[in-house]
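G., before I forget:
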Amino acid sequence: MSILIKNSENLGDVYVEGNEIESVGKGASSKSRRKTDHVIDAKGKAVLPGLVNTHTHAAMTLLRGYGDDMLLHDWLTTKIWPAEEKLKPEHIYWGTRLAALEMIKSGTTCFNDMYFFMEETAKAVRDSGLRAVLGYGFLDLFKEEKREKEIKETETFVKFVEGFGLERVKAAVAPHAVYTVSKEGLEWCKEFADEKGLLLHIHLSETRKENEDCVDANGKRPVPYLDNIGFLGENVIAAHCVWVTKGEVRTLAERGVKVSHNPTSNMKLATGGVMPYKEMHEAGVVIGLGTDGAASNNNLDMFEEMKVAALLQKAHRWDPTVLPAGEAWQMATINGAKALGINTGEVKPGILADLILVDLHRPEMTPNHNLVSNLVYSASGSVVTHTICDGQLLMDERVVEGEDKILEKSERIAKELIGNS
Amino acid sequence: MSILIKNSENLGDVYVEGNEIESVGKGASSKSRRKTDHVIDAKGKAVLPGLVNTHTHAAMTLLRGYGDDMLLHDWLTTKIWPAEEKLKPEHIYWGTRLAALEMIKSGTTCFNDMYFFMEETAKAVRDSGLRAVLGYGFLDLFKEEKREKEIKETETFVKFVEGFGLERVKAAVAPHAVYTVSKEGLEWCKEFADEKGLLLHIHLSETRKENEDCVDANGKRPVPYLDNIGFLGENVIAAHCVWVTKGEVRTLAERGVKVSHNPTSNMKLATGGVMPYKEMHEAGVVIGLGTDGAASNNNLDMFEEMKVAALLQKAHRWDPTVLPAGEAWQMATINGAKALGINTGEVKPGILADLILVDLHRPEMTPNHNLVSNLVYSASGSVVTHTICDGQLLMDERVVEGEDKILEKSERIAKELIGNS
């Protein structure tokens, strides 16, 4: 498969061969003398790296709008957990297909996921064409028997994903959080991930209660607790990190931990506090951006997430210079790629061909004084016209193959799920 | 002109005759036996009231993305004011056409505006088909000579708009703020607005500095200062109201002042503090929603504004139950209509025909467990397929007449403007 993107407004031509970007700029067009499978006219459009969503629970799209504006405990106990107990593999497959469709249509080409029935998530990612890092949500609830079950589930899932033999679908190890996984469980996850060369995906310091409970249970706050048991390292991607001290920021930086900032979810659930972006950025922490699941956002639009991130940090610090547009754009692209250890996030030769085209001929993108500003502060995901992942064209002029079936199936299955819960 | 909207998912049929909604529901379709100018098939769509943007500076679209992430004083003195000094009538006309295009494409049918060269704004509104309340930004800078000039400008502009004879284009009186208009200027505006039966549109308590300076100059904070000179009343719409005390909230409620909340602009400019939504709502103040100008937002998407408003209030109060989706929707529709004194904001017989159709067959609108939640938390303005204002179809399946010309002209004129500043 080869794709020639011609005449883009920002980079001229881009030539994709196989799953890599082969050339960028004027020279790229000469490649078209060879047989090109697909030529895209990008006049009036910008070619950009696909966005990277560093923390989500894709199948939760089925619970979009099912419970809002509720206290966290009420929301979990009366809405989310009862619904989740009814989840069957079929729900996870179609919920993830729906999420993948939404991501493709809003310019996200890679995501980092943690949930249940992850074999179904993996199949849905395989079938959608997206790139993803997938972890089975390991929750032993401090019980040995459950821990053995979670260990087996994790091992089985990793083998299942390896069996795909697809570079774009990777397994991770995903201990849920310090309040749901025992010390022994966390230690096993760490050892297994290191041994297999996998990422460790965990929720960390999302709420104040999590910190207080961790001090009660372990005599330490979550970050020092995890550091003390040797869990923290360069393969850890920690979601949220809202309730962390300056000293803990230094620990995260020293250990090379990657952080996923989820501003919309934090604000909507009113978890209190704000992720200390400025301190983390200055300490050199790689900070990516995540939407979290659709039940607490309620969409997967990374364009919106960039803007909310910038607005939240500015408002919180009373300082409009914090998290400028360029840094928000980096969070959603190159930083996300670094956090997940994938070779994407830029448009240059030798990089994996995860690309999007953005229509500049729209009122909210006019005038184009500053493209990055328009992308971060004015665009929504609907500005994306083409999405390419791993060298494959997944959306062509906003058309995605199989869209109608995915919408109809997921609408029906979501209604059945909620009707039963 | 008559329009029949058939088979909408939420309300069935809606029949529009002239500039009013004549009937809603099953019976509406029988009207189609008469000659109907336009029939819209709304299967898979919801029919909803057009959104009302209660505070903006439309022509500032030309400055979109020109200055971001800067301290307020630097932004104004090095970017906005030098650019504004170069503004010519032509800029205002095309900047407003661009804004109107963006609003039509994102479901806003009415807006409240304050800026310069307002005759050009009025012409652009007339030509775009939107509904608007327009005020010449009265700034006397505490000089008598300038005040006389501003009085004449205001009188001339009101006459100009009256000369249109269009119900959908109304004049307002718009003293800029307490720090730019003298007591005599404010008193003249109040008297003139009351005499003519017009709205008074003012910026109020946007920044902490405004409060401090007002105390230094007048011995009172802005709200009691305005109340003391008899300015506050039911025809006042006050934008921002971020830095107000609980006592001032009571004053605003008692005087019947309407408030325009502009969360994105407040957050992006990091004006500090947060508009006390909960206190105002409980006191019974009519609170609408506004985007402010595109230079400080940087778009005019009221769907995004609803979400940012809800997120900000929840995060600020550490309480997810504050500003639930239903109230955010009301702010953007019926409350905006009440604030501007126009008979829109709902879909029922006898109301002005300002309507939008929203496509439900999209991933971010699926599943449809709760339409209002999806509109507030998941949608962007791109879900709108049809926009009707004053009984006229302004957007049909996302096509707006003259779009290309508006985009090209405004892009060129914006580049010329910035090149010269």
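Residues 2-49+345-403 of chain A form a domain with the Urease, subunit C; domain 1 fold (CATH 2.30.40.10). Chain A touches chain B through 75 residues (CB under 8 Å).

More on Monday.
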